[in-house]
Amino acid sequence: MIQNDDIRPWIKSYDKGLAPDIEIPDKTCVDLLEESMKENPDRPVIYYMDKIFRFRDLDDLSARFASYLYKKGIGPGKVVGINLPNIPQYLIALSGAFRAGATVTGISPLLSPHEMAYQINNANVQALVTLDVLFEKNLLKIKDEVPGLETVITTGVGDYLGPARRILGSLLGKIPKGKCMPIPGKDVLRFHHVLKETRALPPKIKISPEETCLIQYTGGTTGIPKGTILTHANMTANFTQISAWVNFNAGCDVLCSAFPLFHLAGLMFSMAAMASQNPQCLIPDPRNTGHICRQIAKYSPTVMANVPTLYQMLLEEPVFKTLDFSSTRILISGAAPFSIESIHALEAVVGKGKVMEVYGMTEASPILTMNPFQGEKKPGSVGLPVHNTRIKLVDIETGTREVDFDEEGEIIASGPQITGGYHNRPEETANALRRFKGSTWLYSGDIGKMDKDGYLYIVDRLKDMVIVGGYKVFSREVEEKLGQHPDVEFCAIVGVPDPDRPGSEIVKAVIQMAADSTKKDAKKLEQEIISFCKENMASFKAPRIVEIVDEIPLTSVGKVDKKALRKVR
């Protein structure tokens, strides 16, 4: 695949009419949001349960929050933390913080109190918007560990539900509530009181596209989480790339995603909806597949985006297979591998050719590659580099030699969506952003290969590759083969130290059995699976250890939590 920067093999595979490079507007996220608010104030922007928010509502509420923050001295150079699930308050707070010129960091509601304190301190959060239940559960435990946190603004899950649903939910005890109380040395307020008592006069400040809009923390499945610095220019570039690729049409699309908003994929998808002047369905609980199906039936989304495990969960929901998907143009899948068999099963329900695998990472705002919208979607591929983006594959050992087509190597990328580095982590920044052939490239830590048509294939994560006696074992390859065993529902491969060979590892398979196989003898099944692997792959790739578990642990966005699996047994 050795190429100079002017030779991009993927261009010939682009959909007809798509240019390899497009103009990226010199705008901020605030510019994009305010254009949508002013141009289409009456158009829906959020569908949440039984309530509809219009762009004029978002304009008014976010202007109030922006005004409050700015009067508190929280503007350019200051950081607002948002510790919420997918509820309207998240987007109101996000838009308001941006309009005040502040930087936002999304804090997962699933973090432990200690993890939450780390992110608040590391990002220098001055104001935090959090759920009342999380205030009671987490924040009170760490109130003395976050000295830089000056203001805490609480809100409730039911605050923006429709009246009927809110009353019924309260009567049935289905709406969680938490107690809020004063914290010495910090302002503690209610979100709806702040908005009610503040006029909708957003500060008129000039924000540069080069200013930081997000400090987005990586998943933290290995090591200490890193805060990725993303500018308005990064986010605007990636939105523009995605919008041109899938042809978002203002007022013609409805977007639906269960990605959490504290995850960059969910945030970008939501920003794309708002910036393209289209409504989005907010999904507060991604595990409630029944609710997702009801939203699909009610709003007929044209574009969906989820992790593969969510699509697999939906396929197990009987009503999902009865829904009308004639309006759905694309079902985007990302953040984890999606087996070819599962894609075929999904397309048997939604329509052939509608599933679009993509690839990206937090450091890329997040999208780097997408399968063609109209053209060929190659099985197992995550698609082609999007506009204005270069992808190369370099040798795994040194990262200094470009490899050939169909040869495995580390994926490196450059483009306007690429981060400038990590917050207060100069060594991590230097390791991720390196010079290659005279320019700076992002070294992804992912192993992949590219064919002669420019399609990219993900082979493994560098950290998930298992070294067995000097041989490289790619976990995804073994997982795909294991997935063909009739008794295997889900599986994951990890490496564990080999006590007999220092520096070498043993391949371990963690198995979640298929529903029809749960009554079988576990020990016998373990041996059957080991034999199956030995018959179907090279001996050094075959797992020597098989562990059957009730449920494979997942991260907050539905990825297999391999860090947790390495601790099992």
CATH class of the largest domain: Alpha Beta
Number of helices: 16
Average pLDDT reading: 92
Looking at CATH, the homologous superfamily of the largest domain is ANL, N-terminal domain
Share of helical residues: 25-40%
Largest sheet: 9 strands, mixed
Strand fraction equals 15-25%
Reported CATH architecture of the largest domain: 3-Layer(aba) Sandwich
Segments where pLDDT lies below 50 for 5+ residues? none
Outline type: globular
Secondary-structure content class: alpha/beta
In total, how many domains does the architecture comprise? 3
Explain the overall architecture.
The chain is α/β, with parallel strands linked by helices. It is 30% helix and 24% strand. The strands form 6 sheets. A 9-stranded mixed β-sheet has the order 2-1-11-10-12-13-14-15-16, sandwiched between helices. A 5-stranded parallel β-sheet has the order 4-3-5-6-7, with helices on both faces.
Task: From the structure above, extract its key features.
five-stranded parallel sheet; Rossmann fold; 3 domains; globular; 16 helices; nine-stranded mixed sheet; single chain; about 575 residues; 26 strands; GMP Synthetase, Chain A, domain 3; alpha/beta; about 25% strand
